[in-house]
Amino acid sequence: MDKSVLILGTLDTKGHEFKYLKDIIESTGVKTLVINAGIKGAPVFTPDISSAEVARAGGMELSELIARDDRGLAIDVMMKGAVNVVTGLYRQGKVAGIISLGGTAGTTIGTAAMQALPVGVPKVMVSTVASGDTRPYVGFKDITMMHSVVDISGINSLSRQILANAAFAVAGMAKGVVPPAKEKPLLGATMFGVTTPCVTKVREFFEARGYEVLVFHATGTGGRAMEGLIKDGYIKGVLDITTTEWADELVGGILNAGPERLEAAGKAGIPQVVSVGALDMVNFGPRDTVPAKFKHRKFYQHNPTVTLMRTTVEECARLGEIIAEKLNQTTGPTALFLPLKGVSLLDVEGKPFYGPEEDAALFAKLRENIDRGKVELIELDTHINDESFALAMAQKMLSMLEANK
Questions:
Q1: Origin, by domain of life (predicted)?
Q2: What is the DSSP letter of 217?
Q3: Is the predicted pLDDT of residue 405 greater than 80, yes or no?
Q4: Around Cβ 281, how many Cβ atoms within 10 Å?
């Protein structure tokens, strides 16, 4: 194997632990390349890339960083440097995988570098914070977080087994070979439980025609993951049926995907068919976690841990403006589909979020603000989960893909 598993970490404080990882990985026949992200103190063993090189790659000389004696600044510089060093090694074809270990600082540095690598590159992070909220560390990448159980402070009867497991895991992933699959064009689609019938029909339509459809659960992480894969060039067309993450972004729900949601496909110039799935709802956790300012709103208890809140006329109007603004930035073929009889399984006559006025406000602002020279607006007198609506979107995407060949 010409490539190496990168071992990234602070060799000044955890040198013995990293040397242990290095020895185990190399005992399997896998080469390693050690990157020191430590600041103070001499490393226990000599790394392949020094902390001075990492600091320089992060925009500052190590001597200056030491003189400043600012822990926050040091973490930021070494994190940026690690990202630059690791991505540079990847571009040179030298990366078979990456492993790191640490507490909050080490995890921040290690996972920042891992997030900069493409999906599919083996990534293992042994961390003291792996049992909590790992979203800031994992992002939308395929990072394996392993809880260290004990603090990473020496090799003891427990840590030696946990660290060995991590070392064998990354070595096994690096050595593993997946037989090449038959190349299929990749499409992205967004789905929620309340838009499942529509997205399922679309997925089946394309799978029957030889396409592979990656369905992303529109829970914030899902939207980020899809847009990240678009930026990385994996996805050739987007069926962004469920844009509900923007409702959470606007109103303050827990499943937002950030203010750049709905931009990646347009910037990449790939075909996109977009709809307004589940914009009737904002997501919160258990009912007692809903902010008090919303106490007079309309709610639906989806399950004990998920509380849904109906978007208002004013919020829907603003969502229409935002989505139009995002789609108007497109550089590729784009179509926006409006289902005039409802945007989710709950937005149906007799169901909890049925809201003709709210939907009308959403549709009106979209009509008013969409740039018809860039975005084709298609309105159908159907519900979003009607088969005819799903097939209309699928056919439109297919025609875009064929015209884009």
A1: Bacteria
A2: E
A3: no
A4: 29
